Amino acid sequence: MSTKPKGSKRAYQSTELRQSATIEAVVQLCSEQDPATLTTARIADEVGLSQGALFKHFPNKNRLWESVAGWVSEQLTRQVFSAADQHQQADQALEAMFLAHVGFIARHPGIPRLMLGELQKPDNGPAKTIIRQTLARYRKKVVGLLNLGIQQGRIASGIDIEAAAVLYLGAIQGLVVQAMVSGEMHTLEQAAPRIFKLYSASFQEKPDDPEK
Predict the structure, then answer these.
(1) Nearest of 46, 53, 51 to residue 22 by alpha carbon
(2) Predicted confidence (pLDDT) per residue in 159-168, tens digit
(3) What is the pTM assigned to this prediction?
(4) What confidence score (pLDDT) does residue 206 get?
C-alpha cells in the first residue's frame, strides 16, 4: 500500500503548471522588453508569485532561461518539422516549414529577441547551447529536404545546397527583423508566402531550352 500523501500528486501538477506558466510569461515579456533587462522580480510579478516562490520552481535565473530555451526548442521543432512531414514532395515540405516557422514567430514575437540575446552572450551556458543545437537541427532538416528535392527532380540539381540553406534561414530572419523594425509583427504571415515564392524561384528546375 502506498504511503505517498494524498495531496502529493496535486502538488506536483501544480508545480508543473506554475513552471509552464512562468516559461510562457518569459516568452511574452520578451516581446515587450529586451530579454537582458528582464528581472526575476518582473517575471514573478507577471505570474503572480513572490521571488521566493519563483525560486522554488527554478533554483536560479540560469535554470529558468535553460527551461525557456528548452520550451522554445521543443515547440519550434515539433510544429515546424511536423508541418514539413505532412508533404512527400520536398519543395512543398520546405514551404510548409517556412510558413509554420513564420506563424510560430507571429504567435510568439518575443522568441527572436530571446534567441538572439542568448546567442550574443559570451559564455556557452545551457540555454545558449540548446538554441545552437536547435538551429543546427533545423539547418540539417533544410539541407535534407533540399537534397531530397534534387533526387525527386523538384529542385535544380546544380544548386549550392549550403548557400540555399543559409538563404532559407536568412529569409525568415530578414522577414522577422523587418517586421520588428516596422513594429508590424502581425504582417508576418501575410508576407511569408511572397517571400518563399521568391526564394523557391532560385532553386526550381528550369525546362530545357528548345533552341539549344
Answers:
(1) 46
(2) 999 999 999 9
(3) 0.85
(4) 58
